[in-house]
Amino acid sequence: MKKEIHPKYFDEAKISCACGAIFEIGSTIENMEVEICSQCHPFYTGKERGSDKVGRVQKFKERAAKQKK
Hints:
This protein is α+β, with helices and mostly antiparallel strands. The chain has one domain (1-49): Rhinovirus 14, subunit 4, CATH 4.10.80.400. The protein is 25% helix and 26% strand. It is built from two helices and three strands; from the N terminus they run βββαα. It has a three-stranded mixed sheet, with no helix packed on it. Strand 1 and strand 2 form a beta hairpin. The chain is elongated, with a radius of gyration of 22 Å. The N and C termini lie far apart (69 Å). The mean pLDDT is 86.
């Protein structure tokens, strides 16, 4: 392996999430901020996020119905 061409590696890099969770992992970046992690992502928590009342499919159907008229 050639010397001085690889980025510095941090064994205890800190990753902080918007939900408040903090992880320590190995990375070439010492401090990172993320918006979503395994502690707050709906896939891992099993909780669904709230969305707008009229979904995308419903909006599409409404637009399609208007075009037919």
